[in-house]
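Hi there,

I know you've been waiting on this one. I reran it after we fixed the sequence typo, so this is the corrected version. Both the input and the resulting structure follow.
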Amino acid sequence: METNQLTHKIIGAAIEVHRNLGPGLLESAYRDCLHYELSQIGLYTEREKILPLTYKGITLNQGYRLDLIVENKVVIELKTVEELTDVHHAQVITYLKLGDYPLGLLINFHSKILKNGIRRVIFSSSANSYL
């Protein structure tokens, strides 16, 4: 499935969760409900996938966990904060780099209108750059 089509489905599922639950819950509630919605539409989704850190040839299990990874392509980082910051964006970039994933979605379920709380983050390992 093409990445744009995949992200469209993910965002649609996130909007469905937000429409039903609204803002104000814990990240874990949104994570589990979004996992359910994505599974219902046939997307392979892993919850809290462990992401190891490799440093100078050794692997360190630092306990980094991806909120969700969809079709082993799109990292989803969920937040329930007043406002997304550069630190949240940097967290997604780090996950993309460590896991060599091409795309991440940073979703803030605390937003009154969910589409205003979604940020798309792209990582290109070949150019080692972020867009």
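Quick highlight: The CA atoms of residues 108 and 116 lie 8 Å apart.

Best,
R. S.
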